[in-house]
Design goal:
Four copies of one chain form a homotetramer. With about 220 residues, chain A is of the alpha/beta class. Chain A has helices spanning about 20-30, 50-60, 120-130, 145-155, 175, 185-205, and strands spanning about 5-10, 35, 35-45, 65-70, 80, 85, 115, 135, 165-170. Chain A has a single domain (about 5-205), classed as Peptidase C15, pyroglutamyl peptidase I-like (Aminopeptidase), CATH 3.40.630. In chain A, helix 3 packs across helix 6 (about 185-205).
Chain lengths: ~220, ~220, ~220, ~220
C-alpha cells in the first residue's frame, strides 16, 4: 500500500521570464515525506485549458489528500494564501500557447466562485510565527493562476476530505535585478514557507481554521 | 408618473476620518436628472447588517433601474470598478457600531460570489477616454464595502433588468495631507467620474459589455 | 517703474508624453499679480545645457525676487518641495535633444550640492493646512530637473535676497489613464498649490523657515 | 605587520525593532579575510553625535583602506548604494538617545554634501550580475544614517586613498511579518551582497567607476 499523497503543482515560466519560483519550489519538495504523506510535484503549462488538463490527470493518478497549486505573483512581497477563485478568464497578456481570453467563464455552468478549503488563516499565522512574511489574498487575478485555482476547486468539490487551495509566491531575487524597486523573496525562504504551509494544512485536517483577523486595508 | 430612478449610495465616514468621498459624491449628484432618469442618493451607515438594512429600504422605496453603491478605498489612486462580491465578512477593524466579524458569511445560504451586472469594461474605457483614471478591480475587500456589494447583488438577483454594482473611490486630497505619500483624487474629478459612469451604464442597458482586456498584472 | 518679478518656470513634455503639468501650471499663473509682485512664466526645454541657457536668460531679463522652477515627477502623488540639488547629471533616458550624460557634473567647478533657499517646511505646512497633499523631498533625481535646480541655485548664489528653489508635481489624471495604478493630481489643485506656495514664499521673505519635522521614513 | 583593514559598521536596532539587519551583516562578516584585507566590524549607536563619536574612534584605531557604513531602510526592497550625503539632520522620530534635531547641519562649517567615494555603479552592476537586487539611491534620508554617512565622508576627506560610503539594506523577513505588504530580504542574501560589494570595491581601488546608467525614474 502506498503512502497518501500531497499534490504540489508549479507553473512553467511565462511572460518572458526564464524562471518561475512556483516550479522551483514544487521540484524542491518533490518526493519529500511529511509524516505519513509523500509530496508529488507536477509542473503545469502556463496555458488556459491545457493547465487544467494536466492538473486533472495528476488528481486522477495521485488521488491526493491535500493539493496546493502554486503560482508566481510578480510585484507581491509576501507568500499570498488565496481565499477565493472566481469564474472568469481575463488575460492581460497572451498565455504560453498564445491564447488571450477576455471575460470568459472558466466553466460555463460553474458557480461564480469557490473558496479555498485550506486553513488559510492558520497557514498565514503559522508562517508569520516562523518569521516568514505571509498574508491572505482576496484575489488570485484573472489569468492562468485563477483559472487553475477555480478548476482545482471545481474538481475537488466532488472529493470530500480533500484539502485544496492556491498560494501565490513572489519573484525570486534574480528575477528583479532588472526590475528596479520590485520586491522579491529568496528561494530558500519560499521553499521553507511552502513546506511549512503543507505541514500546517495537515495539522488542520478535519479541524476548523483559526478565526483571527489578519488583514490589510485593501 | 415619476421618473425612473438611479439609486446612488455612499458611506458615512469611518476609521477616524471626518470625511468619506463616497458620501460627498452621492450627495453632489442627488436629484440630478440623467436623460429620463433621476438620481436618488442614500448614505449608508458603515456597519455590518445596518448598512444592508438601509440599502434594502432604499431599493424597496425607489425601485431603481440602476444602482451603484460607492465606497472609499484608501490607498488606491483610481476609480475602481469592482467585478465581484464574495460571501465573506472579515473585518480588519471594528465597524462604526463596534462589530468586527471574522470569516463569517454575508448570507449563510448565499452563493460564494456575485458578479457585478454593470458594464464594467465599458465604464473603465469611457472614464479613461475622458481622461479619468480608472481600472477594473477584482476585490472589494472583506469589510463593509464588500458586504454591501454582496447584499446588493443578492437583492437584485430577483430583479431582472436592474443594473447593479459597486465602485470604490480614492481618498480626497484633504484626507491624505497627514498620510504622506498616499494617493488621492480631487472631489470634482470623482463626481465627474461617477456621473459619467452612470451615463455609460445607461447607454449599455440591454447591451453586452465591451470585451477588452484592461488589466494590471496583479 | 515695473513691479518686482516672480519667475516661474515649467518644462516642455518629455519621455513621449504630450503634456507636462509643470508647463501648464506656469502658463496658468503667467501674468498674475501677487501683492506687489507679478508672475512671469517661462517654459524650459527638457534638455541638459539648453534648459539652463534659457533659465539664465530669464534670470537676467526679469531680475526676479523669487524663482520657482517646476518639474514633473511621475509616480509621486504629492507636491514635492525639493530640499537639495546635487552636482551630477545621470540620465536614465535621453533628453529631448538626444543627450544622455552619465555621472557628469552639472558644473565641473561647482560644490557637491546646493540647498533650496525657499522656506520648504513653511510651504509644506501651508499646503497641508489648505488640504493640498505636499511633502519635502530629499532628491530631485539626476535628470534635467535636478540639473536645472542645481544651475538655478548656482546662479542665485551671487544674488543675495533672491529666494529660489524647485518643486516637483505629479502626473495629471489624463497622463495616467494608460498607466494603471499610478497616482495623479488634478491640474486645478496643482495650480492652486503652486499659487499658494508662491504666496507662502513671499510671506517668509527675510524670515526663518518653520522648524518642524514633517518627514516620511525614507 | 597587520593586515590592512576594511571597516564595516552596522547600527543597533531602533524605532522599536528588536533587530537591525545592518548589525547582523557587520557581525556576520567580522574577522573575515578578503584577499590581503581583514574585515573589522563595529556597531554604532542609533544616536546623533554618539554614532559619529564611535565611528571616529574606529577610523582612528583601524586606519581602514575601505569603509562601508550600513543602515536599515525599511520599505526598500533592494540593496541601496547611496550616492550622496547631505549636511542636514532632520529627524522624523527621536533617536535612541531621545534627540530629535530638526533642520540642523551635521557640521556647521561643512559643505552642503559629500559624494560617496565607492564605485557605486560597479557595485550595483556586480550585485545584479550575481542575481542580487540592487540600485543606486540618491538619498540616504535625513536621520542618523545620513548623519553618519556625512560624518564619514567628512572624516575621510583628509585621508586620500580611503574608499568610503554608505549602503542601505532592507528589512529582514521576520521584521515584516507584522507589517503586511512590506518588502524584505533574507539575511543570507544581505550578507552575500555586502561581501560581494566589499570585493567589488577592492577590485576598483584606484580605478574609475563604471559609467553606466542604471536608474529608476524617481
Amino acid at each position: 500500500m502506498t503512502a497518501p499523497t500531497i499534490l504540489l503543482t508549479g507553473f512553467e515560466p511565462f511572460a518572458g521570464d526564464a524562471l518561475n519560483p512556483s516550479a522551483a519550489i514544487a521540484l524542491a519538495l518533490d518526493g519529500t515525506q511529511m509524516g505519513a504523506y509523500r509530496v508529488q510535484a507536477r509542473i503545469l503549462p502556463c496555458a488556459f485549458g491545457a493547465a487544467l488538463h494536466v492538473l486533472q490527470q495528476a488528481l486522477d493518478s495521485t488521488a491526493p489528500a491535500l493539493v496546493i497549486c502554486l503560482g508566481q505573483a510578480g510585484g507581491r512581497s509576501e507568500i499570498s494564501v488565496e481565499r477565493v477563485a472566481i469564474n472568469v478568464d481575463d488575460a492581460r497578456i497572451p498565455d504560453n500557447a498564445g491564447a488571450q481570453p477576455v471575460d470568459e467563464p472558466v466553466l460555463a455552468s460553474g458557480p461564480a466562485a469557490y473558496f479555498s478549503s485550506l486553513p488559510i488563516k492558520a497557514v498565514v499565522a503559522g508562517l508569520r510565527d516562523a518569521g516568514l512574511p505571509a498574508s491572505v489574498s482576496q484575489t488570485a487575478g484573472t489569468f492562468v493562476c485563477n483559472h487553475v485555482f477555480y478548476g482545482l476547486m471545481h474538481a475537488c468539490a466532488g472529493r470530500p476530505g480533500v484539502q485544496a487551495g492556491f498560494i501565490h509566491v513572489p519573484w525570486l531575487p534574480e528575477q528583479v535585478v532588472h526590475r528596479p524597486g520590485q520586491p522579491s523573496m529568496a528561494l530558500a525562504l519560499q521553499v521553507q514557507a511552502i513546506q511549512r504551509a503543507l505541514a500546517i494544512c495537515l495539522e488542520f485536517r478535519g479541524v476548523a481554521d483559526l478565526r483571527q483577523t489578519q488583514g490589510r486595508l485593501d
